[in-house]
Amino acid sequence: MSFFYKNFMFLLVLTTAVTPLIFSSSYERGESHNIRSGELYKTWHVNVTNGMSNNKILFLHCKSAQNDLGIQNLIVGNYSTWKFRPRIFGKTLFWCYMASDNGHAAFDVYWEDENFFYRCNWKFCDWIAKDNGIYLKNIPEGYDEFRHKWEPGRLY
């Protein structure tokens, strides 16, 4: 066998063995899903909107392990948005702390989970802070899904 052929066969066998490990689905929440690997590594968008009433200001601080998106104060109707590509190796996770007169909430706004991806239509996660809690827009089904209640007080 030629040197080229041996190396080609080695790479083919290695790729076949490693690919399932790279795209396996062991996720933050202990759930196992068969996520379409190509969908994971495209550009994702996350949007957080202040949908509260009476001119309430939403304090917002979002981050991941690699990126701190900074502190923002959103007036009613305004939003914060960012885009990113998930990491190829390892899990991508973004979380936010929100606070207003109603209280505070801290939770994940992007994690690798097929049910979550479905709600975001596999590309755009839209969170809305309302007077009675935090909602995720379920895009395919066309409604705002209640996800988190406001906790009393503020942490910041």
TrEMBL record:
Q: Which GO terms describe its biological process?
A: rejection of self pollen
Q: Would you name any one GO CC term?
A: extracellular region
Cellular localization per UniProt? Secreted
Q: Which domain of life is it from?
A: Eukaryota
Pfam families in the record, alphabetically? Self-incomp_S1 (PF05938)
What is the first-listed, main subcellular location in coarse terms? secreted
How far does the signal peptide extend, from start to end residue?
A: 1-24
Q: Which UniProt keywords apply?
A: Secreted, Self-incompatibility, Signal
Q: Which PANTHER family match?
A: PTHR31232, S-PROTEIN HOMOLOG
Indicate the family of this protein.
Answer: Belongs to the plant self-incompatibility (S1) protein family.
Can you name this protein?
S-protein homolog
